[in-house]
From TrEMBL, chain A:
Belongs to the ABC transporter superfamily. It holds the Pfam family ABC_tran. Keywords: ATP-binding, Nucleotide-binding, Transport. InterPro entries: AAA+_ATPase (IPR003593), ABC_transporter-like_ATP-bd (IPR003439), P-loop_NTPase (IPR027417). This is Iron complex transport system ATP-binding protein. GO terms for molecular function: ATP binding; ATP hydrolysis activity. The lineage of its organism: Bacteria, Pseudomonadati, Pseudomonadota, Alphaproteobacteria, Rhodobacterales.
Automatic annotation (TrEMBL), chain B:
One of its GO terms (molecular function) is transmembrane transporter activity. The keyword Cytoplasm does not apply. It comes from Salipiger thiooxidans. This is Iron complex transport system permease protein. Keywords: Cell membrane, Membrane, Transmembrane, Transmembrane helix, Transport. One of its GO terms (cellular component) is plasma membrane. It is found in: Cell membrane. It comes from the Bacteria.
Amino acid sequence: MSVVAQSLIWGVRRRTIVSDVSFKVVRGETLGLIGPNGSGKSSLLRLLAGLKRPISGRVEINGQDIAQVPRKALSRQVAFVQQSAATDTNVTVADVVRLGRTPHRSALAGWSDGDEAAVAHALDRVDMASRKRQSWQTLSGGERQRVHIARALAQAPQVLFLDEPTNHLDIHHQIEILRMVRDLDLTSIIALHDLNLAAMFCDRIVVLEAGAVRACGTPDAVLTQETLHDVFRVKAHIVPTPEAHRPHIRFSPE
Amino acid sequence: MTSETTESGTARLALFLCLSLIVLVFAVAAATAIGDYNIPLRTVFLSVTNELGLTGAEIAPIQQSVVWNLRLSRALIAALAGAGLAICGAILQALLRNALAEPFVLGVSAGASTGAVCVIVLGIGAGSLSLSLGAFAGAFAAFALVALLSNGATSGPNHTILAGVAASQLFNALTSYIVTTSGNAQQARDVMFWLLGSFGGVRWPDFQLLLGVVILCFTICIWMARSLDAFTFGDEDAASLGVPVARIRIVLFGVTALLTATIVSMVGAIGFVGLVVPHAARYVVGTLHMRLLPACAMTGAVFMVLADIASRMIATQQTVPIGVVTALVGVPFFAIILYRARPQT
């Protein structure tokens, strides 16, 4: 499913946080949102997922304005993975993934075979099927993130939004999560901090600066010395890699 | 969870509900039999069937009247109040994502006491307003203030809890002010005693009203049970699962306020049940609200009836306030659950 942002503007009180953002993501694409802290990545992601209403502009998913789509119907099409969402409730891995079926069930409907199959498939996809009876509280950070992604997959969405899914994870788990997301047959939009990971796993990258799109394109087109210097205020060397369009960034301490 | 465990969870709930229903029937029978003067269970049973027109046994009218008009209505109201408070506790713990949430967290009991004091001490309504109506009005005033302070309940859980704390403080201060400036000592004691809870003086019309409110609120809560589960990881997560967060919060806060205000205005602010019973029920049937809410209702009902029996047996010739008993009986029981449910790390 394609995702189109058209002149999105959002802010709180007088402060504009997302200013006039437009771009298009085609079906099956993995788009990375990068930018410094406070550049509006998380807010933009929430606007795209329909969790916040823009002041002006609109978001279209598969040609449909999401403001016109009821909340429940929308969540059958798009899923959102927060960064490190936590709970004190004593739930199992399977309980969490089953929550993903919420938009597909009516208030009093029983648990169907379809629901069961979706949950089993989602757990398989993130390699947590054997842990489904384990308590959420006993999972490591990486495992929790995988379970959250499984919950999102159980929603059977066509578009997946992830807000810094690799935060607080070691490098092995960072790569594992992003590889998993890239290999899903979904349109995904990921807010990321690590520029090299963005270059490695995203088909295209949007660079945000102060709420506006500074650059948009393939990793090698976007991740240039000048952009990194202007937006992130760092000195960096861009090293080409054998993979086309996927540069490696080496930061210099000065 | 696999489908087998879903089924076993449902079977477990059904077993739990059946067992607690049997216990409840016995508890209500015991509550009807035990009192200042004890009535044999057989007489209790025959009195009830007589009243229902099923039998025509010879029973002293005084006994029949005590069983039917005083004790049975009282026991059934205790059961309903326990069920209602436990449901409110479970709902608020889920919505506010706080294990310490209980039915009075939104300032309802403080508001009720102010309302009651206005009627008892200030004589507002000049006798036309009953204590219950005053308490109900006060409870809803407090709830309205909390709703206002927390932007119609659309802001986050902590904001709502703080608004509840502020409202409680305000209404408690108002109550103290009224009692100290214009009340006499006896009136102050009456208010205190009433607030600690008592099932004395409740009759069948109260039962009918409370039954209606409990059934209405329970139905709405069950209808929204699945949405409540979606709050496990917070409001935003619930929204991304397609739950209309603001609407659910407003409706369920309103439902808990209505239920709590009705109970408080009838029998006073009975603490502890709404806090503890949901935790106990969760320990038995798990965290899914479709199962938790019925389990809470039954456990709360049994607990309150037993507490009412205890309140009449602890001290001879007088009734200990029910709120004192729920805490005295509840804390050791809760300690056992806390100990057994400690994290296995």
